[in-house]
Amino acid sequence: MIFPIRFDGLWRHRDFVRLWLAQGISDFGSYISRLALPLTAAVLLHATPMEMGVLMAIEVLPFALFSLHGGVLIDRVRRMPLMLGRDALCALALLIVPLAAWGGWLSMPVLWVVGFLCMTAEVIGGSAHQSYVAMLVGKDRLVEAHSKFTATSSTAQLTAPGLAGLLIQWLTAPFAILFTAGSFVISALVLRTVKTPEQAPVSAGNTSVWQEIKAGIDLVRHTPVLRAFAIQTTLWQLLNHMLGAVLVLFATRNLGLDAGDMGVSYMLGGLGSLAAALMADRLGRRFGIGPTVGMGFAATALAWLGFALIVQGWGPAMLWFSLCQALFACGATLFSINYLAARAAVTPDALLGRMIATMRFVTVAPAPLGALAGGMLATALGLRGAIYVIAAMGLVLAWHALYRSPARLLLVLPKRTEEAPTQGGL
């Protein structure tokens, strides 16, 4: 076998397995809603490109509003209650969609509110999860941990969209979201079985919230590898959200794909993500962490160009769209696994929550502008024209990541650090 599966390493860590299972269950539901929410907007509510851009923008707005303060909270309190709170809030928010559809008051503003609430929960709970993983397994096993989480997420991506397509066709998209709400409830129940005691956070003393936020910002600003990753990931997120605002509309309106077709294409996309999850550790060790991140950017840019080149006609469009999904998922996974491991390994434990929050703020907070720009670009140039422009900018970013970014020089994971780095150092 090229990728032998052995139940050793973290598979022998009982609480890691429980954490992995909880995350896998919520991932399964999330992939259903990731398809069902935009399809609800595009097909049921006949959203315009600008309305889809607003939906994408509002879904990531909480990163701008709450990330930095959330990082301080994560470093001040235990992470597990925050992770449980994420699951509870997501479940309750998603229940609004089927209730609104049943009551006849479903509208785009309702979807905007639901997206905002779910992402607010993710901003706090998702950052807490990343910090909790580093605490649970140790920084020297982060690539292994993130590879396992991503492989499971890829498996969910392989199966959930197909089920989502069937549920949407049988029950309509709003009621398919009921399954997502249920997955978050089950995830919370599994999380409660994790028994490893979490060390109490160090008291902040008289330090103000703003001083602690500044400490996280200064860490990113004065750590070259974090600064380089922050810049290129910010640009990638802008482009990715530009594409997200137009891709579902392009697939359903220009290519004539329906909910079932979209489900199959997302499933095939999961194959690319799964392959990358299995290869990420090996590629990172062979080519280096920074170059592997650049390879991921290049693959996503080529996938965006592939979307723009799709010809009309159900058969060719379906095949080409699915292959592009697989290439995109492969590139995004290669990038994210090595990026997440590198930024955690370079960060002192006491600043881990604030580093994650700062990086998420810097990289995702501008994304609403990308979503709105995607909607405006599609309005001006048409859906296909907008994708061409996005792809061209993606190729420029990939070239920079591979040949100019300081992050390309990072070949191995930095050693575990206990103190904050000084200006100019790793």
From TrEMBL:
Subcellular location(s) of the protein: Cell membrane
Name used for this protein in its record: MFS transporter
Keyword Transcription regulation: no
PANTHER family (alphabetical): INTEGRAL MEMBRANE EFFLUX PROTEIN-RELATED, MAJOR FACILITATOR SUPERFAMILY ASSOCIATED DOMAIN-CONTAINING PROTEIN
CDD domains: MFS_MefA_like
Protein origin, superkingdom: Bacteria
Membrane topology listed for this record: Multi-pass membrane protein
Species, as recorded: Chitinimonas viridis
Residues that span the membrane, as ranges: 53-74, 86-105, 167-191, 229-251, 263-280, 292-311, 317-340, 361-380, 386-403
Species lineage: Bacteria, Pseudomonadati, Pseudomonadota, Betaproteobacteria, Neisseriales
Record's keyword annotation contains Membrane: yes
Short name of any one Pfam family annotated for the protein: MFS_1
Main location as per UniProt: membrane
Alphabetic keyword roster: Cell membrane, Membrane, Transmembrane, Transmembrane helix
